[in-house]
Structures
1.
Amino acid sequence: MTDPIATIADQIASREWGLFGPNTYALGVDIGSYGLRAVLADIRGTHVVHRAADLRPGSNASMVLDDVMTMIHGLLQEEGMRRDHLVRIGVGFGGPVDSIKGITRRSYRMQGWDNLNVRERFEDAFDAMTLLENDASVIAFGEHLFGVGRDVGDLFYLHLSSGVGSGIVLDGRLHRGVTTSAGEIGHARLKVGGAVEVEDILSINGLLRRASELGLHTEDLTTLFADPGVGQQTVGEAIELLAVGLAGIVQLIDPALLVLGGVVTRKGGDMFVRAIEHQVNALVSQTPQRHIPVVASSLGHDAVAIGGLALALDSLN
């Protein structure tokens, strides 16, 4: 697999990023449940570097923000950068956000994030304009600007991991919705008055729980996808539900491309993606006649940080 960090340099160099000098840098940051990541780049694409750090055991919001600030300060120092060279920061967060106010609404996996002004913390620390978005949304924009969707203006991204989320790019712009929560489909309830959400079925834990109900007891997605009996039944049920939902998305926004990402997609591999593509196209209307491509995300483990960098650079225009 091609290293996405290496390939985005050419993409950055091929574009104009507003009326800024060559020593202008942008930063993408991933604040997620799997760890911390950052990607730093100048607007000429001549210098692109990234860093990663694990979360401390028992981390809360305060600890995570302290750690990500330390990581970024260290990165800037190691690269010999003056602080005023950093002019934009794009942050992707693993939970619902208010991107207008720059606050995290909550985290479903960690304490302390309720109504926390993350944008203010970054701008106070680095004196650089900061944008905050949900992680799936920034991946969607990253795929549009630097990844598999860079030749299309309209795409839908679905993230299948410890949670289920999505991002929407329409006419080359990230679609946020009225409350800036467009894409939070994982928490849609499947029955009026019911407690079961989409995420309860299609997340990592949801798939493993369903397999256990059918008699396959494992904590490993690789085992689940490889099992010819219960594993394939579990995956088949998930594909059917995904295909129905994605076909509805196609009818609603008519994207050029559907992109799948997250741990579930990586573990399922090409066969998983191809099966979803086949079923989606069997369900969508053929008036007009069309084939909607379904592809895997290309940005790898740094997808959120790269997406944050894409947002930061795009804002320079």
2.
Amino acid sequence: MGEPTARQLLDLERAGERLVAVGASGLVVLSDDGGDSWRQVEVPVSATLTAVHFPSARRGWAVGHAGVIIASDDGGETWTLQFDGRRANAALLAWATQQRETYEADLAAAEEAGADAAEIDDLAYLAEEAVYLQEDAQLAVDTGPADPFLGVYFLDEQRGMAVGAYGMVYRTENGGQDWRIHVSEIDNLDRFHLYALAQDAGGALYLSGEAGLLYRSTDEGVTFERFFDVYDGSLFGLLPYGEGMLVYGLRGNLFTTDATGSAWRRLDSGNRNSLYGGTRLDNGDLLLVGAGGRILSLGADGSAQLLQHPSRSTFSSALQGPDGRIWLVGMDGLARFDEAKEVGEND
């Protein structure tokens, strides 16, 4: 199999002074010397892990394919399984059944009361969609877990959310002892994929996804306001930027908002490669990574610099270690940021 850090890695996080990376086939690797050496640890799953988050030095969570959520309370040294796709499918079926019953009852009541045609049409549409959702949920229960979680974020050691494919949203308020379905609070009737969560300097929680999905919560993830008409393509990630937030995604598209979250503006960095991950550096600058080894550095002052990694590998995450060095992870495993060069005229 070779070195574990040469295998596909999808996310990278700090647990205090320790670096923790996760990836293909349940791979979790740790470094206690700033990235000079790495060791693989055992986990209770073999599914690919897509995202990891440590709200403190000791407590962290990783999520991935087949709806798995694993947790660590010793800085990533050992892990336990908290949730999986079978439980996710059962929760979705119960919720979908309740939704169908509610919409069908509302439709019957509206028809009996002689409601206007527009209201009846709207309720009929919702009832029909609920039938399809219930059928999809039953199929998922019958065929077994398949859908992946794609993002995880914890406000503290107790309260967190995991999001993923086909609109999956689960929330915990007790450190993962219970994960509860949370889709009713998010406007995503078409069940587009949800990719990432991040908090701004003021504590507002943002959520991004497929087809331009973009939301903001000012009550710590209980409810979410949806932003429309920012962009119609996939928005793969979010990073706090100044006092506000930056969202990035397909074809290098970037959008920012201030601390109020009231309006979004597009940034043109000159990069057209899709951006899949990134990190905020100690000095407030942002580093974004993506397809073909392209790296975008965004200064806290609004400046932009485009770089190219010689591997031309597609990267999905980046992180600055405790000693200031920056590491990248992606399709070909671990890489050093300092190998990247500024893009020239022929690149």
3.
Amino acid sequence: MALKIRLSRVGTKNEPHYRVVVAEERSRRDGDAVEQIGSYNPRAKGNPMIIKLDRVDYWVSKGAKPTSTMHAMIKRARRAVPAA
């Protein structure tokens, strides 16, 4: 079972909202997830991302691989943590 850390869309038409999830690689984009570890609202002002970095580290240690988009978002979230 290969796991991916990726985005799952939950918003309506023209109002996107995403969940950051750990899901099996072959599952559908909006299908069942193993765990929800954050959220992303691209239309929000300020900080649109909420990511539990401790859970990201846990799942990466278990072999989950982030998609390229999630890799960039995780890097951005790590840079924002020391400033907070």
